[in-house]
Amino acid sequence: MSSLEDKNGQERRGSLLIAVVVALSVVTMLALSLAARLRAEAAASDEGRYRRETRLACRNAVMLFAAQHLVADTNGWDALGEEWSEPWERRAEEWVLRVSGDGWQSPANKTTGIRDESARVPLDASAEPLLAALLRLAARLPETAAEPLAAAIVRGAPYVCAEQLLQVPGMTPEILAAIEPLVTPFPTEYVNINTAPEKVLEAVFACAGTHDPYAARSLLSRIASFRAAGSSFTSAAPQSIAKSLGGLPSPETLLLTYCQEKLGVETDIFSGVAEATPARFWESGRQPGRAIFTYDRRSRRFLRWVEQ
């Protein structure tokens, strides 16, 4: 009897021990799960806080850049040789802030400056003849194809980016590649003669009421040489441009007169990429806050802000 009682007692103690071990295992698993969840929540909270901080810092980067290089620039014109067209970087105690055209590159000399939207042809109804001329000159389309495609582009406006043009009937990747650096989806009032690519200026001259091909080529060559020498036009008035170029033959002066409403000398809208990294994370290589933006200098507001 005593032997049987001992055996039963041992079994009960063994069962109790197993139950205790199982309970401890469950508690341990729950504790580990809770700890993992807390760590995940803390990491998510830290990431959320990091994104909020870098988002604000990116906006501050653009505003500081604008304050230093655009608001303070009161000479009345904008040209590619000025500081605003260069990549911008500011290193302070707490932040590393950067503004560039397409994002900071390594080495830094591969980094581009901000994109001057005022140097390009807008994708809206006011510029349909300019778009048709650009399609002829840059994409080498015949007039019979360029004009209908320009009309289709205008009908599809507004656009957020030039890539949306691929949705327009008749547009191809090859045509888009030819015109993408020359057009803007944003509402510019004129083309900046100091910064516009030569194809854009050629399109402006091609739309003149009394288009003289020889005068247009000659004038374009004079402007290109003037800009290549580091000079800038301070006014878009025909007489001022002619004076800056050392005088012009009457056909070229007349051409400028017909184009004067399409030309300007200031940059009103610019686009780029803003980046912000807290100094404490700089050495560790943590991904910076990054945003693609378009800023209207006249109204001092963002036309586009896309966080990445």
For the structure shown, list the relevant keywords:
six-stranded antiparallel sheet, two-stranded parallel ribbon, 308 residues, elongated, single chain
How would you summarize what this structure contains?
This protein is α+β, with helices and mostly antiparallel strands. The chain has helices at residues 2-71, 128-137, 143-155, 173-179, 198-206, 213-228, 238-244, 250-259; strands spanning 88-91, 95-100, 115-116, 121-122, 183-184, 191-192, 263-264, 269-278, 289-296, 301-307. α2 crosses α5, α5 (198-206) runs antiparallel to α6 and α7 crosses α8 (250-259).
Beta strand %: 5-15%
Average pLDDT over all residues = 84
The count of β-strands is: 10
Structural class category: alpha+beta
- Assembly classification: single chain
Amino- and carboxy-terminal Cα gap: 79 Å
- Helix fraction bin: 40-55%
Order of helices and strands: HEEEEHHHEEHHHHEEEE
Integer-rounded radius of gyration: 31 Å
**What does the largest sheet look like?**
6 strands, antiparallel
Compute the number of helices: 8
Shape: elongated
Low-pLDDT residue intervals, each spanning 5 or more residues: none
What does this molecule look like?
This protein is α+β, with helices and mostly antiparallel strands and 308 residues long. 46% of the residues lie in helices and 15% in strands. It is built from eight helices and ten strands. Strands 1, 2, 3, 8, 9 and 10 form a six-stranded antiparallel beta sheet that branches. Strands 4-5 form a two-stranded parallel ribbon. α2 packs across α5 (198-206), α5 packs antiparallel against α6 and α7 (238-244) packs across α8. The chain is elongated and about 105 Å long.
